[in-house]
């Protein structure tokens, strides 16, 4: 089975060469897989550390957010109470203004009208103030009746 090659001390058959090639290929493949698994393990360790750090920071942040929400709810309750008080004051002011208007409004208008009438009746026309001249109105496009023309010409 062995052939003797001249000049070399050992003879290798084709099957042996193929076996050596397959063994080398498998060795290379296994080393690539080992490197990939080692990198994957490092990535998983880094990811685990990152998740632990995020969890450590997230818990206090969530507690702060919860406290802020509680504080906001307290402030909203206060604003709601103030708004209801303002609404009550507004309705009271509206009722008071209606009461004052109905109580004093009618009599005050009557007193003012009475005072104006008394002033007009007692004051009359003053001598030092001349009487106002009657105003004439010009309407463009209308003709003046003959009876009105006659009155104007007599003046």
Could you characterize what this model shows?
The protein has 155 residues and is an all-alpha fold. Helix content is 77%, strand content 0%. It starts with 13 loop residues before the first helix and ends with a helix.
Give a brief rundown of this model:
This protein has 155 residues and is an all-alpha fold.
Radius of gyration of CA atoms, rounded to a whole number:
56 Å
**What coarse outline follows from CA principal-axis ratios?**
elongated
Number of strands: 0
Helix content estimate: over 70%
Element order: H for helix, E for strand: HH
The major pleated sheet works out as: none
List the keywords.
mainly alpha; 0% strand
Write the layout of secondary structure elements.
Layout lengths: L13 H110 L22 H9 L1
């Amino acid at each position: 089975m062995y052939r003797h090659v001249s000049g070399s001390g050992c003879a290798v058959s084709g099957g042996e060469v193929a076996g050596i090639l397959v063994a080398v290929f498998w060795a290379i493949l296994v080393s690539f897989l080992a490197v990939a698994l080692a990198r994957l393990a490092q990535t998983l360790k880094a990811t685990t550390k990152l998740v632990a750090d995020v969890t450590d920071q997230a818990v206090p942040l969530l507690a702060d957010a919860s406290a802020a929400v509680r504080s906001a709810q307290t402030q909203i309750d206060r604003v709601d109470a103030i708004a209801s008080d303002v609404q009550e004051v507004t309705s009271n002011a509206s009722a008071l203004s209606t009461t004052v208007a109905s109580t004093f409004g009618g009599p005050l208008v009557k007193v003012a009208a009475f005072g104006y009438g008394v002033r007009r009746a007692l004051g009359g026309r003053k001598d030092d103030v001349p009487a106002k001249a009657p105003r004439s109105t010009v309407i463009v496009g209308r003709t003046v009746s003959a009876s009105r023309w006659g009155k104007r010409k007599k003046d």
